[in-house]
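Chapter summary example.
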Amino acid sequence: MQSSCKKVCVTSLPTAIFLMGPTASGKTDVAVELAKTLSIEIISVDSALVYRNMNIGTAKPDAATLEHTPHHLIDIIDPTDAYSAAAFRHDALKLMADISKRGKLPLLVGGTMMYFKALREGLSPLPKADAELRTFLDAEIAQHGIKHLHAKLAEVDADTAARLKPTDTQRIQRAMEIYRLSGQPMSELLKQGGDSKLPYRIVPIALIPSDRSVLHRRIANRFKLMLGNGLIEELRNLRKNYPLHPNLPSMRCVGYRQSWQFLEGEIDAAKLLETGIIATRQLAKRQLTWLRSMHDSIEIDCLSHDLLKKVRAAIAD
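The structure predicted for these 317 residues follows.
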């Protein structure tokens, strides 16, 4: 009787599809094609696509694609704002519930693995961002440098400081913010556990390249195309229209960080191309590491000639 109840409880959960993969693995194209034949709605799981007017460097779907295949959680904040994993989880859960009520399947597509993890496993009880404290920390970093703040973090939260690079501005700032808001180290708060797990039956599909060198060529070609399509001019316009600085999360996105250095005269065009490609490869490597750790995922070769067919079969099964 107990096992029967357990089976009913599990199978009665609504279904959601996770389509995950590294940058340049073809996730967006697959999702758009799936939307033509399946009753789904797409939720973007991408920490860069949330920003308005950041289109070229984020490889955002073009206006025509978004018109006939809308994506939730694209173009929702300005480049001066911040968007957290907690905010994503809140927004995604609401959207998933609404989509399910409409009798459709939520298809969550992207490469921000921290968002997928937060959605699936919940979050620890960390305090929300504080704008005034952020401004104070920004000023402290500008005056003394991020390595100074990293050293101060080591004094109050040695575990977190040890796992962060001394140049990781965003995470060091957040860890110090958490300590100053809560009076407790972030490492201790993370041990306290998070929200309840995701109330959905997940179909987790991971697009993994069988030949990483081919993915690297895709990455190089795509970054060259971004530059050819006007990435530098896009960033110039962003700097004219918004009060931006290089420590903002939006300007730390791969591609924009290197383009900012180019506009500041810190690197030349050749170095921009080189560092942009290297940074994107490093991002892909981190994404693949996350994906390899998700042992229940259905792995599909993103380089396969019949990729769409295989993804459809995985969903059907």
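To summarize the output: The chain has 15 helices and six strands.
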